Sequence to fold (547 residues):
Amino acid sequence: MARTEALPSPAEAVPARPGLGLWNLYFLAKFALAWGGTLNLHALPNLLLAAALLLPLKPRWLSRLRHLAAVPAAVALCYYDTWLPPFARLLGAPGVLDFTPGYLLELAGRFVDWHLLGLLALLVLGYVLLAPWLRLTTVSLAGLLWLALLAVPRPAGWTAATEAAQASAPAASGSAPASQNSGPADNATLDAYLARFYQDEAARHTEFPAPAADAEPFDLLVINICSLAWDDLDEVGLRDNTLLRKMDVVFDDFDSATSYSGPAAIRLLRASCGQGSHAQLYQPADPRCELFENLARLGFSDELALNHDGHFDHFLDELHQQGGLAAAPFDTSRLPRALSAFDGSPIKRDHDVLAAWWQHRLGERSPRTALFYNTISLHDGNRLLGADGRSGTDYRPRAQQLFDDLSRFVDELARSGRRVALVIVPEHGAALRGDRMQIPGLREIPSPAITHVPVAVKLIGMGTPPMGGPLHVAAPSSYLAISELVSRLYAASAQHPAAYDWQALLRDLPQTAPEAEDEGAKVIEYAGKPHVQLKGESEWLPYPQNP
Fold:
């Protein structure tokens, strides 16, 4: 009797397709992070990784080799999906390898987010419980396909319909004029908006008055502060401080247009023209753009002082080459060391430097001097050296010391009896709070929290201070407003008697819409909301705001 073989069951007839297995955790974790705004998930490369993992391979050793090769690829892809700068740029940034070991360790610790680790632990638990009951590979693939479909450019007809719908909708309260914000916030609209911004800014510059031999002389002191933004002051509870209360004018909505020191100093030194792109900062400047060159034509001698050596990131070279500031730094070698910088170099106390320079100035015969003073006392990672030998990196005590030093210096200027215009312009913020795109202290993307800085002006011995505290300039402003104000101060000094009328000085100062950029990113405000474009990408993304 012939033996009959049992027919295979339907389940055995069709071999089961291999799933993603534990790799589902990788993709599901990315979905959770992208949903929370802490990851910029690129659907296509993630789909390619998933497809490579699902490709059937019969030899077991070849399948294991694939998983081994996928690990470094997945790590690199995960980094690519973050908001962090390209790894090559991170390593190639000047001075990064010069950071002290303690500061590097501190930076590494900021990447640890315990709330995020708790979320990932819950995700692992959910995977363990659901994996026996659900085919999670289907969930992962469906999620990646959905994200890929969302990234597909919209048809032109759909965009036109959306524009019509938005045009018929009521305008939001406080929004910018329609001529500046027309159309949906898509890539084409934001590109056109930025191009129009550059075009408009290229036509603007400050008209300085002709030199007047009998103009009342005064000194201009520009205090350029690293790592000070309104958001930082709110974070440490110092928005209401003695220094700002002493000022005559405070700009409430000033945008520094950058998040790094060198570009910020160049923009300030080129304040007499409208705002250009980051790339333009490293091209030859129109002479009429250089603030200190304009002041030199009015009889001001330029001087430079720093409370650091100026070597990090070639800062001093950029002041001379791109900023047009020819003066050599004031000698501070005999002053005591007050802080240890993030790279281990010495930092002098601000009052020590300014008081020493002022004594030097009192011994000069020049009727007018323009000083550019740069301080990095608040830079991330600096250590304040106490009299007892202890040190600390906390921002608040360093900020309080800076404000006390500058406030004391203002009082000394007033007692000297000389006429001085003091202008305080921070370079950028310290990013103390961080956000969903950047850890605290990281300033690769010039977000509004970093570029929204407190700018203030004090006239000493030049008329009557405003009653009831400082006047506030609420309009969106940037460097051109400073140049215009300096020009008006000189014009007022040429009148007889000098007419330092606050209303006339501040009336119709140039306004500048918020736009900031560094080498790695651009940030613009459109329809009242910030949008970011990362280097090497054409897509604009809404900048995620902290809850």
Notes: The longest strand covers residues 452-460.
